[in-house]
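Human: Not sure, check this?
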Amino acid sequence: MKDPIVNFLSKYIELTNEEIDILSNQNFIQSYKKGTILLSEGQIAKECYFILQGCVSSYYLVNGDIKITDFFTEQQPITPVSYTTKKPSEYFLECLEDCIISIGTPESSAELLRKLPRLAALGSHIMEDQLANQRMKYDEFIKLTPEERYQNLQKTSPDLLNRVPQYLIASYLGIKPESLSRIRKRLYN
C-alpha cells in the first residue's frame, strides 16, 4: 500500500518516483494515546497534523460544556488557526482514539519544500479545499435541521457513528444527547 501522505498529495499532483521516495522517507510520525490533547485553548500551535490512523476532535469549552466543531480521521490534514496566525488557540484538539499522526512544523515544512519545491503550489490548493469543506459544513449546519444533519453525517461519514461516543456526535450536531436518541429512534422506526 502506498504511503498515506503520498496518496493524499497524489490527489493534487502527479508525483515522480523520486518525490515519492523523498516523501516516504520523511520521519515525522508520532503515536498518541486516546485522550491526548494535541492543542489546548490559549496555546500557540507549533505543529500541523496529518492523520494516518485514528480520530481527533476539535472543540470549544463553553461554560464547562464541550462544543464539538469537527472530527478528523484518516488522510485528513489539520492546520490549527493558531499555527497560521501565531495567536493563542481558542479551541482544543484531542485524540478520541489511539492515533498515528504525521507532524509538520515550520522548519520541517521549509526543509521539505527545499527538497520538493513543486509542493509549494499545492499548499494553496489544499487550503482552498479545506476552506471549501469548512464552508460547506457551516452552511449545512445553518440550513439543515438536526435530523437532516444526522442523516447527512450517516451518509458522508458513517464510520464516525461507530467510532465516536454519541454525546460527542450530539454536540457536533448542536443538540442534546436525548434529542439525538429521539432522532435515531424515529429514523430507525
In short: The mean pLDDT is 89. The radius of gyration is 18 Å. The longest strand covers residues 65-72. The chain has nine helices and eight strands.
